[in-house]
Amino acid sequence: xxxxxxxxxxxxxxxxxxxRVDIPEEEFEKLKEKAGQRDEYYNKWLKVHAEYENTRRxxxxxxxxxxxxxxxxxxxxxFPIVDNFDMALAAMEKxxxxxxxxxxxxxxxxxxxxxxxxxxxxxxxxxxKQFDPNVHEAVTVARTSEHPDGLILEEVRAGYMxxxxxxxxxxxxxxxxxxxxxxxxxxxxxEKNG
Length: 194
Hints:
It is a single chain. The chain is of the alpha+beta class. The protein has 5 helices and 6 strands; from the N terminus they run ααααββββββα. Helix content is 60%, strand content 17%. Helix 3 (72-94) runs antiparallel to helix 4 (98-118). Among the domains are: 71-119; 123-181, Nucleotide Exchange Factor Grpe, Chain A, domain 2 (Roll), CATH 2.30.22.10.
């Protein structure tokens, strides 16, 4: 029996009050005014929320479009180079003087590098420079005592930076100075012979 009474109390607490309450008319008018303000604020909030959602969707679409067409400018600058390569290949088949065709291809290459530079791409300096693992990748080592250790002797493949950010490291041939190793070997040889 105790449980039924407790359950009955809980059910009574859950049911909303549907009775009538008497309050002064002045208080009732204030409540109506507050309810009107609440409705006004709620409608303003709905409007602002809808504007926010529309702005968010528009910005998302603009971002997507920007990403899809970000390379449009540089690609359109590359069309003349592609046309020039096509003409060079066609001329190469017919040309008797291959040096003139090679000169034309050299001009196309210069134009291509100019477009890259105009778009913030710069070639990484290599030959005669000191090896920097941040921008260079050593693919071969030249053992010699004629040059200082870590000097770049040859560029195997060009590397590029875009607005000071590494796109691709330059592959290089680097000096490994054997002069210290030669001295140690010479001393060891003298000790054996001596």
